[in-house]
Design a protein that fits this description.
This protein has about 110 residues and is of the alpha+beta class. It contains three helices and six strands; from the N terminus they run H-H-E-E-H-E-E-E-E. It has one domain: Nuclear Transport Factor 2, Chain: A, CATH 3.10.450.
Length: about 110
Amino acid sequence: MVLLPVPLRDYFEANASFDQERMLASFSGDAVVHDERRSHRGSAAIRDWIAEATLANQAIAVPFAFRMEEGRYVVEATVSGAFAGSPVRLSFHFRLADDKIVELEIG
């Protein structure tokens, strides 16, 4: 795994073990996730998104590149799981504040 800031490393490590609560703990309470043309704001909505997008699809993201772009942390990852088209390469665009993820956009 590439060397990532702690909140991002925690998020991807928790994803690899399908640890929903640890994934959620990487986010601030009022964070927002943008994925598949939908937005999920706040802990309850993000918990549901993790269950739907990650757990239900057994989706694991493995980072292979990391960079800064316009004030955001961009992680390129290969995502594999029980979904059509697996594996896919996706970009995870993170904004951090106070060592928490406050925004994640996946595309």
